[in-house]
Amino acid sequence: MRRSAWVLAVALLAVSCGGDEKDASGNGEVTVFAAASLTEVFEELAPEATFNFAGSDELATQIREGAPADVYAAASPRYPNELAAEGLLVEPVIFATNRLVVIVPADNPAGIQSADDLAADGVKLVIGAEGVPAGDYTRSILEDLGASDVLENVVSNEEDVKGVLGKVVSGDADAGFVYYTDAAAAGDEVQAIELQAQPLVEYPIAVVTESENAEAAAAFVELVLGEEGRRALQEAGFGVP
């Protein structure tokens, strides 16, 4: 669906669902379920909104179970597309892209310089769990690199990228796979190592069909898709369509 047609569809949904008038910025009563990797940029973009940040798979489960969400933004098209097919979301739109990197603690005690070093004896690696987009992307990269044996050094499968980041920053792990934007947000606490292989990491956003704040939900999505949102995403290190 072209963006103009999608915006019209969201506007019609908002009118049909009714609801109180909301701030044009999309703040106010809007509740946004978003991938953990969007934490910093979304909180900066709409500080008055209510956010639930977690793994995209966990958020999809919560929406299926009737959690009160107005907007869903995921780190993979998989779950939004599934929810849209089930009638739980308005058609998702891609609003950002990302890439994966390997991070190590600032002092890099294991001396890791490339993905090849992750297979060395004694290396403690943390990654996203299966079903978590970052975890699935990580496994895809390792398969493409012919380095699936690296998984033998995994000491923890985390529920989102913030869990991976936390284990590396604390020194509980020697390395982890996270999005570039998470590494950038961590600043000097980690070193980032670029990867030769990359999956297509796309972020879709959509209004939840049963939203009780459809006008505010549509306004938040437009904020993200608009000039202000694109600028904030680019400044945080995301790519934009």
Strand order of the largest sheet: 2-1-3-10-4
Helix content: 25-40%
The radius of gyration over CA amounts to 18 Å
The N- to C-terminal Cα distance equals 14 Å
Notable features of this structure?
241 residues, alpha/beta, 5-stranded mixed β-sheet, 37% helix, elongated
Description:
The strands form 2 sheets. Strands 2-1-3-10-4 form a 5-stranded mixed β-sheet. Strands 7-6-8-5-9 form a 5-stranded mixed β-sheet. The radius of gyration is 18 Å and the shape is elongated. The relative contact order is 0.23. Helix 1 packs antiparallel against helix 8 (214-225) and helix 8 crosses helix 9. It is built from 9 helices and 10 strands. With 241 residues, it is an alpha/beta fold.
Quick overview:
The protein has 241 residues and is an alpha/beta fold. It has 9 helices and 10 strands. 37% of the residues lie in helices and 21% in strands.
SSE layout and pairings?
Blueprint lengths: L2 H15 L13 E5 L3 H7 L4 E5 L1 H9 L6 E3 L4 H8 L7 E6 L1 E6 L19 E4 L4 H12 L9 E5 L2 H10 L4 E5 H7 L3 E4 L7 E7 L6 H12 L1 H9 L6
Parallel strand pairs: 1-2, 1-3, 6-7, 6-8
Antiparallel strand pairs: 3-10, 4-10, 5-8, 5-9
Helix pairs in contact: 1-8, 8-9
